[in-house]
Amino acid sequence: MPTDDSVKISPPQRSTPLPPSEVPSASKVVWEKFTPQKRFDRQMYHYGNFSQNFLWGVSSSAYQIEGGWNADGKGPSVWDTFTQKPGSGIPDNVTADIACDSYNKLKEDLYMLQALKVKSYRFSLSWSRIFPNGRRESLNQKGVDYYNRLINGLLARKITPMVTIYHWDLPQALQDIGGWQNVEMINIFNDYCDFCFATFGDRVKFWMTMNDPQGLAWLGYGTGQIPPNTEEPGTAPYQIAHNLIKAHATAYHTYDNKYRASQRGMVSIALNFNLGWFAHPIFKNGDYPEAMKAQVLVKSELQGLSQSRLPSFTEEEKNSIKGTADMFCANHYTSKIVTHVTGAILPPSYQNDRDYIEEEMTDQPTTAVEFTRAVSFGMRRLLNWIKEEYGDPDIYITENSVSTPMEYAYDDIDRVFLYKTYIDEALKAYELDGVKVKGYATCLMDSFQFFHGYQFGFGLHYIDFNNIHRPRTPKFSAHLYYNIMKDNGFSLPDDEKMLYGEFKKDFIWSSATASYQVRLSTQTDCIWDKFTHTPGNILQHDTGDIACNSYNKMEDDIAALKKVKVSHYRFSVSWPRILPDGTTKYINQAGINYYKKLLDSLIAANIQPQVTLYHWDLPQALQDVGGWENETIIERFRDYADILFENLGPKVQLWITFNDDRPDTLPYIVSHNIIKAHAEAWHVYNDKYRASQNGMVSITVNADWAEPRNPYKQEDYDAARSVVEFYLGWYAHPIFNGDYSPLMKRSVLELPEFTPEEIKRINGTYDYFGLNHYLSRVFKSAKSWTNSCYRGVVLLRDRTWLESGSHWLTMTPFGLRRLLKFIKHEFGNPPIIITENGVSENGPVDLNDVHRKYFYEKYINQVLKAYLLDDVNVIGYTAWSLLDNLEWAVGYTERFGLFYINRSDPDLPRTPKASVSFYSSIISCNGFPDPASGPQECWNSTSTPTPTLTPKPEGKKINFLESKLSFSDSRSD
Known about the structure:
One of its GO terms (biological process) is carbohydrate metabolic process. Belongs to the glycosyl hydrolase 1 family. Pfam families: Glyco_hydro_1. This protein starts with 28 loop residues before the first helix and ends in a 45-residue tail after the last strand. Helices cover 36% and strands 15% of the residues. By secondary structure, it is an alpha/beta fold.
């Protein structure tokens, strides 16, 4: 017989049972600690590792996976009876007669477990497979042999068995005598447990007497959803729970008295949500919580009853129950919002004993089954509550997973997100809060989901229930979980580690604004004036009429720039302020003079101008004749550029023709004309002004980075690459390579064509690569093309990424470095200036914008890595934005600025946020000095250190430009 070398569980340290809880509970400190958390703090990822003997595992239950419902002498359980009865209400009238067929596929199950390299396997014993009629005299040796083979197979593979003795599948013969409503069940259950301890206890050191007794009591006897389908919510659940608690305690003492000394194992009970009903008697003082007793008593009296519907324990029973657990086993899936209500509005039933209503957290991601709505931060809070309420016990998370529709089969991205977030919240509880988290188990394979049948899957492995052979196939989540276990948590990946070093000495440090977003619009007439004055177009009816009033507050803006210590300032010129109708028929000299004054003031402050010719504010007169869809606008823009180069060019070394005219929102002819207009402006400068002014002219494009949803799927990998090629290349490929890319030509049938002369005219019209970048996105391959510009792909959202004040903007620093490397390889390593990069907030004003400091630190550090490690020719970085300005259609509700603008003050003062000193320190140091070298004079001492928590783990990413990784050496995202 195999030895139990795999068992690493130490004998429990027996402790004195705790006194009753205070009312309100002393554990309210958990709410006091976590409720004030900001979203940024709550979402921050923690890299770290669990203890070396952490028990990573998977779980199952007998009725859900075994099948063989009457094989080799097994007796029927209540679930066999229920599911085989017509009209059970289970979807498609399915049963678990075969389920995963684990009774006949033990070798396959052991192979799965060995391949995953888990340390533990939690499974349950089928009571009616061992005792067909529920009692010892009906012993079925073939059932015992099956579990012996399973246990021995686990130990031979160094996997610790974690055994649940009873998981809802009561023998039908015992239900026929009243089931758990019959007090005889306490002794009958004890005898069954006694047999299990005696038979398997030489090898099993981790026992759970029963699983989720609260679920059994309420669903089986309150709502009647599961066997025995009794609907008596006012009384039966309390009676059943009373007997279950005493049955557990009796079995615990049997182990304690007869087996502990020789077997040295541990015994507990696996509890689900609503812990106190069962946990308070077992872990504290042997009795129900005082709040529960008072609540049920009051409601019973209101119903005219002479005594409480909640049964009472005798003093002897209390003494027997308290302390009957050697560790805390918690099943956890979701969290809810609870609202206090008066009992008068509730019906006279068990539900009436509550004075609260449970609500779904509708701002959290939905899943296939409503009760498993993903609320990862609840895991950390629950673990902290158990620590505070129940005397800091050892805690094993014995169930945690999420439901996904069976048609998703292997591609279970929701489960991947769950593991990345829920396990990390458990890690926070362990490393940051000192909670004694000792183990974690998730669902091994898809199985019969009780009253949901086979509609949903919870497992790491997909089971094809339409195939008689029930093949087991690992899902995407199995790869991820394998790597989490291998790393024993989340080790900080190399690409997330800080790099210390400096940029080149003439590196461009800048911040940016745009004309319409910050300047007084009086005497201008652009398309945004009309748009913002149309009711319903802008949130809160905001307009750019006043904006930040930068037109009249030039000195204040320059003072702000000096405080940030930038070397450059990127701003845009208002086309209609120079040419009111968009043409050279009338040149507004006052507008030219304003910009000359601005340029002179900047240069006097030792700040170099970085000027954008066009930032979305087209003169309305040009829009009235077709705007960018009218080819004549190419000439209009060339003339406008010529005027600016002539009048402002001697003072400007950096020009941007167009800012981020997002191709996904424009007709193809618009981008076609913009590209040609850019080329004409570039040639005007090149032919007439370059020799004397010696400046640089280019276009700036916006580009997100794209990640494959499943890096183990070639089609998702290809989809992500195609997005970057298509989106980034829309403007860049013609300008840097002469024409639209082959991918774009294949994808867009209605794409206009450049003539050979136009290709020659456009090719090479750049002096650097201007890049606006904010975030990364996730893509998967689509079975059919959509009408979006991302042909053949589907855009998804990785909910594990840090959010911001804008629904579209998630913080993904790694993507910037990858995008820079892509540009280097795709376009011949041109000089790159990052012309926009920033993050937003919304809601109440908080000048301590820690999220923005975090954003700049991580994103700029990725730029430094691209520069020093990847030899990318990046020459500048621009923070968006200098001021909290009008953010287009969302008005002033989203704030990107380094400086807060108080719009309730007519003077519109500029107030620096904490990120100002942080960004200015990076600028002063020209990068990131190594803290190991001691304090740096360039670093502002008031700058807050880097947050101790870091973003979501990227793992070892599959990169377009690098070779594919095999399963054995990759870390899935």
